[in-house]
Amino acid sequence: MTDDNQQAAPSSENAADAPHHRTIKSFVMRAGRTTEGQERALRELGPRFLVPFRAEVLDTTATFGRQAPVVLEIGFGMGDATAQIAQTLSDTDFLACEVHEPGVGALLKKIGEHDITNIRILQHDAVEVMEHMIAEGSLDGVHIYFPDPWHKKRHHKRRLIQPTFVDQLVSRLKPGGYLHLATDWEPYAQQMLEVLSANTALRNTAGSYADKPAYRPLTKFENRGLRLGHGVWDLVFRKA
Ligand SMILES: C[S@@+](CC[C@H](N)C(=O)[O-])C[C@H]1O[C@@H](n2cnc3c(N)ncnc32)[C@H](O)[C@@H]1O
C-alpha cells in the first residue's frame, strides 16, 4: 500500500542500499514531517498511550489495566486500520508497533478523537519488541497488514515474513492464537503462503488465501486498487 503511506513507508527502496547496516532491518528510518495535530497528540496523549521499549517482558494486564485478549500489530503505518479494528474489537487489547513518528502521532490523534482505550503504541522495531517484551505463549493474535514488499531481489532479505521470524512469532502465540497477514504484492503473498504453510506449528484456516475477515477495514487506496483490478491477499493461520 505504498500510496497509502506516503509518510509511513520508505519513499525509495534505494535508501536501503546505504552501507553499514549492523543488522538487516525491515524498514529504513526516514525523516518525515509531523503535522501540528500529530505533534499535539504526541505531547498530550503520548504519556498515556506510548509504551517505552525495554528489554524486559511487558506485563500487559498492568499496561492496559485489564485482563483481555492481546493482539500485536506490526507496522501500522498511519494507524487507520488499527484504530478501526480496535473500535470494532473493543474487548481485545492492541499492542501496536511502528517506527515512523508521523504515523505514531497520527494514531495517537485518532485515539484521542475516538476515545479509544484499548491501544498502546510501541515506537520501536517490532522485531526487537517481540524478542524482548512479548512473553512466550501470550498473544491471541498478530496483525501484519501490507508490510513493506521490498520489490527488488537484493532487498528480499529485508522482508519481515521469513521462516526464522515466523518461528519467533509463533512461539509468542497462545495455542489457538492466529496470524493475520495481508498484502497487495502477489509475489510476497506467495512467499507468505509458502513460509506459513511450511511452519508445522501452524494450520491454514482457509484452503489457500483467506477471505478478508470482516474486522479488517478496506482502506481507500485498497478500494481504489481493487477497482483497478489489483489484488489483495489475506492469510489467516492458527497455532495448533
Ligand atoms: C507499507 S507500510 C503499511 C502500513 C499499514 N499497515 C497499512 O496497511 O497501511 C509498512 C509499515 O511498516 C513499518 N515497519 C516496517 N518494519 C517495521 C518494524 N520492524 N517495526 C515496526 N514497524 C515497521 C514501516 O515503518 C511502515 O510504516
Automatic annotation (TrEMBL):
Its EC number is 2.1.1.33. Substrate binds at residues 152, 184, 219-222. It holds the Pfam family Methyltransf_4. It catalyses: guanosine(46) in tRNA + S-adenosyl-L-methionine = N(7)-methylguanosine(46) in tRNA + S-adenosyl-L-homocysteine. The keyword Lyase does not apply. Keywords: Methyltransferase, S-adenosyl-L-methionine, Transferase, tRNA processing. The keyword tRNA processing applies. GO terms for cellular component: tRNA methyltransferase complex. S-adenosyl-L-methionine binds at residues 73, 98, 125, 148. One of its GO terms (molecular function) is tRNA (guanine(46)-N7)-methyltransferase activity. It comes from the Bacteria. Residues 1-23 are annotated as: Disordered. Pathway: tRNA modification; N(7)-methylguanine-tRNA biosynthesis. Residues 1-14 have a biased composition (Polar residues). Catalyzes the formation of N(7)-methylguanine at position 46 (m7G46) in tRNA. Belongs to the class I-like SAM-binding methyltransferase superfamily. TrmB family. This is tRNA (guanine-N(7)-)-methyltransferase.
